[in-house]
Design brief:
Layout (H helix, E strand, L loop, with lengths): L6 E6 L4 H16 L3 E6 L34 H10 L5 H10 L3 E5 H6 L13 E4 L1 H7 L5 E4 L1
Parallel strand pairs: 1-2, 1-5, 2-3, 3-4
Helix pairs in contact: 1-3
């Protein structure tokens, strides 16, 4: 696949579970093919990386979906559970694959502040950088692709 981008930059703006999940699918796929991948979480997308609550439940499980589904899933957790039953990669598997394959995770400082979040609210098991748009643009490749999700 000589025509593929050498790097994939994903702006994860949406806080909808299905969109964040697919951003992880795209990033892990690019990494598996040998391309670099950067995930830039901003605005409601930042909520997908909030650390688990006191009971250990991941915050992304409470994310809404971008649109109704035939299965009428109530939230991201219900959709993720269905993915597991269907032997599809779930959120935690994809996130772990991205970490293992060395995706770059940038969380937008402006996005955090706009949503009333702080770096201390985020997961510690993912190598997150708090930075801004300039860092994303500096990281982007002239021969890469940038997608807004």
């Amino acid at each position: 696949m000589a025509n593929r981008p050498d790097a994939l930059s994903l702006v994860v703006y949406s806080g909808a579970y299905d969109k964040v999940h697919y951003a992880l699918v795209l990033a892990s796929g690019a990494l598996a093919l040998g391309s670099r991948a950067t995930l830039f979480f901003t605005m409601d997308g930042c909520r997908a990386l909030v650390k688990p609550d006191a009971s250990g439940a991941h915050a992304w499980r409470r994310l809404a979906l971008s649109q109704p589904t035939a299965e009428n899933f109530r939230d991201g957790g219900a959709m993720d559970d269905a993915f597991k039953r269907r032997n599809l990669a779930d959120f935690e598997q994809l996130l772990a694959a991205c970490v293992e394959l060395r995706a770059r995770f940038i969380v937008c400082d402006l996005g955090l502040k706009a949503r009333g979040l702080a770096a201390a609210d985020l997961r510690s098991d993912v190598p997150l950088e708090i930075a801004g748009v300039a860092t994303l643009l500096e990281d982007a490749s002239k021969t890469g692709a940038m997608l807004f999700i």
